[in-house]
Write a structure and sequence with these properties.
This protein has helices at residues 3-6, 44-51, 81-91, and strands spanning 32-36, 57-64, 70-78, 95-96, 99-100, 102-105. The chain is α+β, with helices and mostly antiparallel strands.
Length: 113
């Protein structure tokens, strides 16, 4: 299930290699989505592969607690606002690792009220 149903084999692997090791890559400030209700076993690679269905994933990360355990949510940065809209439209409530995930536009901390 999940990702396999969404991805076609002839789709180019865009965004591959964009993420460097620990402490290397950072969000570039582009349009991004918050993804919630992730299985605790979901890695940033799994999430990136799932999100790649709708566009060019520039960066992806899973939020972790102080012990390094997943908090069950992540952030995904795309190249364009159109890709963010597509992610919300097509991937909100989609299945990833047997869970229905929630996808919404991320609001940067500086813009939160």
């Amino acid at each position: 299930g999940g990702v396999d149903e969404l991805q076609s084999d002839d789709e180019p692997a865009t965004g591959a290699g964009n993420r460097r090791g620990k402490g290397g890559a950072r969000f570039a400030g582009g349009p991004r989505v918050y993804v919630g209700s992730l299985d605790f076993k979901t890695s940033w690679q799994n999430l990136k592969d799932h999100m790649r269905y709708v566009g060019d994933v520039k960066f992806c990360d899973i939020m972790k607690d102080k012990q390094g355990k997943s908090k069950g949510c992540g952030l995904v940065e795309f190249a364009t606002d159109e890709e963010v809209e597509r992610a919300i439209l097509l991937l909100n409530n989609s299945q990833l690792h047997g869970r229905s995930i929630h996808v919404r536009r991320d609001v940067p901390a500086r813009d939160r009220v």
